[in-house]
Amino acid sequence: MCLAVPGKVVETVERDGDAPMARVDFGGVVKDVCLAYVPDAVPGDYVIVHVGFAIQQLDQESARASLRLFAELGLLEEEFGDAWERAAAESGEAAVR
């Protein structure tokens, strides 16, 4: 299954000739994401990411509620695999607050 998962933009990156990119944190798992559809996103913003593309911005409360629900359903583990659990364990925090 491929989910559209909310994450927090931690850094934006400009690459010559490429679409705008960002590093997005999904509760400890950080991935490179294309911002072509939401070019105004800045560090601290939450975005919904599907197959490597940020497709929509959303508020922090909605992002956290979605992540809690995904975690309860076990969908984050399916999407991120062991890396999600390792990141949560290493940070000493639950994957979703």
Automatic annotation (TrEMBL):
Gene3D superfamilies: 2.30.30.140
Protein family: Belongs to the HupF/HypC family.
Provenance organism: Streptomyces aidingensis
Superkingdom in the source lineage: Bacteria
Pfam families the record matches: HupF_HypC
UniProt-recorded Gene Ontology molecular function terms: carbon dioxide binding; iron ion binding
GO biological process: protein maturation
Listed SUPFAM superfamilies: HupF/HypC-like (SSF159127)
PANTHER family (UniProt xref): HYDROGENASE MATURATION FACTOR HYBG
Protein name per its UniProtKB record: Hydrogenase expression/formation protein HypC
